[in-house]
Structures are given as structure tokens and as C-alpha cells.
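Give me the fold.
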Amino acid sequence: MNLIFLGDVVGKGGRSAVKQLLPELRREFNAQFAVVNGENAAAGSGITGNCARELLEVADVITLGDHTWDQKGFEKEITLFDRIIRPANYSASQPGRGFGIFRNPAGGEVAVIALQGKVFMKDSAYCPFETAEKILAQLPSHVKTILVDFHSEASSEKLAMGYFLEGRVTAVLGTHTHIQTADAKVLPGGTAVLSDTGMCGAERSVLGREVDSVLAKFRSGMPIRLPVVENGIIRVDGAAITYDQLTGKAMKIVPFSRTIEL
């Protein structure tokens, strides 16, 4: 069995590229189940209901991160979607849910968990390690395939989560830094790990934002608007995981990057 995970979708260009390339990627990797991190889908910060509907035309589940609430009104919209997962280690009083169990059209069920890191991140999130333990204890024993989107700044924290959950989940895939790392591997316990899957955004950009604006901000130290690059060559980064449906153990992880000109 195979599933696909795509890194942070940035703005309209990222959404358009995902809509065009994800069906092709499904065919290429023979993957019937796909998860997309959409926390930057709306103009580079957060997501809206309309953006979510657009991505869910081609993806099975959307995960979110530290920009979950950036778009006004999404705290109400999120309750309308059962295929959107926000970080589970947010306060229980916040709307939405942090994990879900979904039917894989190819067979079996897939549990998707979203967690947010604490190193160099907002302090409002609870301990992701304790949260992961609690969620795993709640999952039905028959659900063997478990995918964790760990949205964190520090690669060390993301790799540590991989070792922490080794043998207990199918994959721990990092998001947030928008740059695909070169450390993809399957741990001996059968858990695939990748510190960061990358992004779905403009090739010539800084994390999806206009280069000149980012340079001006770095050089001046002033608050400067950082427009999202919507056109040109758009990159779609992600990973395909091959796993055993009966055990949930990962057998292979293949990072990939594809481009399309918009």
C-alpha cells in the first residue's frame, strides 16, 4: 500500500499546482490516499473554507499548523470540515480536532494526527510528546496505519518525535520550514521519518515569498509586507510511503519534488 504526503501549500500558486500535479502523483506512486498540509494555503498564512474545498477536490485530508487561525472566521468554518486536522496539542477549548480516522479507498483505515512543536515555536501548544501518547491510547486497536504531521521549526525535535514513536506509527513527517531535508529513512521499528517534506510553492522565492521583499526585510530589519509568489515555476514537494496494511509498518519512503509552470 502507498500513501502520499505533501508539504506546506503556499498561496494560490501552491493550490493550483497541487490540484494539477497530485492526481498525477497518485498515479505515479499508485497511492489511493493523500494528505496535504494546507496551513499556508490562503495568501501564505492560514486557510479558508474555500481554499480547503479546493484542496479537498484532490486530497483526502488537510493538516494544519501554527497559522491555523490566521484567517478571520476560520474558527467557525473548521467545524464544517471532517477532513481537516489542526494541531492536537492546542487547547481542547479550540474548535476542530487534532486527529481523525479515515477510510483508504484502496483498503483499510488511516489515522492522521497533527502535532505542533515547541522549540522556537509559539508557547501556547502543549507538549507534543505527551499529546501523541494520549492519542495513540485512544485509537482503536484495529487501526494500524498512523501518519503524524509534526509541524515544528527544529529538525532535532522532529527527528526525536520519529524515534519516540518508532514502531508505533507508520510515519512521522515534518512540516513548517518549507525546505525538504535529506534525512528520509525507515527506522528499524518500521516508522518512516523525514524532518521536513518541503513546500508547494514558487521555485524562485524564499519560502514562497517574493525574494526582493524578503531581502529588504532582512537587510533593513523593518516590518515589510512579504507577498506570496503566485506564478512562474511552482514546486510541489512531498513524500510517498509504502507500508504493510496489516501491520502499519513502513517499508519505504521516497521524497519527491515536481515542478509546473503557471
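The chain has six helices and 14 strands.
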